[in-house]
Write a structure and sequence with these properties.
16% strand; 249 residues; binds 1,3-dihydroxyacetonephosphate; TIM Barrel; 8-stranded parallel beta barrel; alpha/beta
Length: 249
């Protein structure tokens, strides 16, 4: 049985005052059936980890450098995130791939560093609208999985997030059939590469315009083990609705 995961990605949002949302979330969901994770900006990881101590909320980073330390101005390593209290890190988000030119090789190196630092890693994949229109979605996903996911993973340490680029922050989502097609495909690729034991244990999240209002139908799709949520993770009331939908799925 895979433990479902509701993960929030705050992106470049959040000041100290916004930690109050986490208090509200923890109070509203003291004992969720699902795992709950918030990935705030790096500046808030330590404070959020301290604040969520004793609650059901875990804290993660949004990216990490492949090296443990060194002359990389402005970057944060996986060991630093772990030291600050993170237990997860997102790698390969499409915004990192686009804004920072991160390749599959870069993402795989980051994922490897995260695992070496003892973090669980959420590897993001997803097609652009042009790639979907050209019927290349599964080829793109296949290539990203092969290139971005390191070899040494376990069913617990690896999470895949399928985030169609065109669905992020747009209010548009794929149909449930389209989500199911990609999630079933990812599951098959994981089983082929890592064997059924590991392949069936890895959680596969859907991300892109998940809201309380569409969460229930998305969580009913096969091989959807939770969500990676951007905008709707910023407010406890919205994210709480998504947690409730996942707990009920
Ligand atoms: P939105 O939920 O705001 O569409 O963002 C999704 C996302 O990119 C999560 O990583």
């Amino acid at each position: 049985m895979r433990v479902k995961l509701a993960a929030g990605n705050w992106k470049m949002n959040g000041l100290s005052a916004d930690l109050a949302e986490i208090d509200a979330l923890a109070a509203a969901h003291p004992d969720p059936r699902s795992e709950v994770l918030i990935c705030p900006p790096a500046t808030l990881v330590a404070a959020m980890a301290a604040r969520t101590d004793g609650t059901a909320i875990a804290v993660g980073g949004q990216s990490c450098h492949p090296a443990a330390s060194g002359a990389h101005t402005g970057d944060v390593s996986a060991a630093m995130l772990a030291d600050a209290g993170a237990t997860y890190v997102i790698v390969g988000h499409s915004e990192r791939r686009a804004d920072h030119g991160e390749s599959d090789d870069d993402v795989r190196a980051q994922a490897r560093a995260a695992l070496e630092a003892g973090l669980k890693v959420i590897v993001c994949v997803g097609e652009t609208e042009a790639q979907r229109d050209a019927s290349n979605t599964l080829d793109i996903i296949s290539g990203q999985l092969a290139g971005s996911v390191p070899d040494l993973v376990t069913g617990e340490s690896l999470v895949i997030a399928y985030e169609p680029v065109w669905a992020i922050g747009t209010g548009r989502t794929p149909t449930t059939d389209q989500i199911g097609e990609v999630h079933d495909f990812i599951r098959a690729r994981l089983e082929a590469r890592f064997g059924t034991g590991v392949g069936r244990s890895v959680r596969i999240l859907y991300g892109g315009s998940v809201k309380p209002g569409n969460a229930t139908e998305i969580f009913a799709v096969s091989n959807v083990d939770g969500a990676l949520v951007g905008g709707a993770s910023l407010k406890a009331s919205d994210f709480g609705g998504i947690i409730a939908a996942l707990d009920a799925a």
